[in-house]
Write a structure and sequence with these properties.
2 domains, Alpha-Beta Plaits, eight-stranded antiparallel beta sheet, 5 helices, single chain
Length: 180
């Protein structure tokens, strides 16, 4: 499953964090409720919920609709609670929490990811292998694979990663997917 992570990036009004956190939790729950109402084959499934972010398992076939879904059922919904703030968010997607990359919605049927080739390749494989949607990508799998710049020395990887990780890819690519 593709993982989505949403983080608060801007608040238009200043509110105590406890108030904003409560509003955000209501918005996160509303997204789950709406995915159930829409009879998704697999409704949103939260994995991590903290005061300012929410990580869900999301069906791959819904990836192109997540921006509009969150705009409607999170941002718009949250603005009707309390002081009426608009909670804006970054939308990230990836194979795992650690490999999630920002997803830009270019138009209704086009999304774009930028980041290391190792992480983008996992997103590519998930989207391109989904039988429920017909998608074209502006890059081939082979091209993405060739862009990887893996750090193999464990000490160098540890220093660059600022911690311990099994992989470190220092490439930076951009890939667009278009739903037909």
């Amino acid at each position: 499953m593709l993982v989505q992570r949403y983080s608060l990036i801007i608040m238009l009004n200043i509110v105590k964090i406890i108030g904003t956190s409560s509003i955000m939790a209501c918005g996160f729950m509303n997204n789950i409720r709406e995915s159930l109402k829409e009879n998704w084959k697999q409704p949103l499934q939260p994995i991590i919920v903290v005061h300012d972010s929410n990580t869900n398992y999301v069906p791959v076939e819904r990836i192109f609709d997540m921006r509009s879904f969150y705009d409607e059922y999170y941002t718009k919904y949250c603005s009707t609670i309390g002081p009426g703030i608009f909670l804006l968010f970054d939308l990230l997607a990836g194979y795992s929490y650690e490999t999630a990359k920002e997803m830009k919605q270019i138009d209704e049927d086009t999304i774009e990811f930028s980041g290391d080739a190792y992480s983008i390749l996992k997103i590519y494989d998930k989207i391109m292998s989904c039988r429920s949607i017909k998608v074209q990508c502006d890059k081939t799998r082979k091209w993405i694979e060739e862009q990887k710049m893996m750090i193999t020395d464990p000490i160098d990887r540890f220093i660059r990663e600022e911690g311990c990780n099994m992989t470190k890819d220092i490439s930076n690519i951009t890939v667009r997917f278009h739903r037909e």
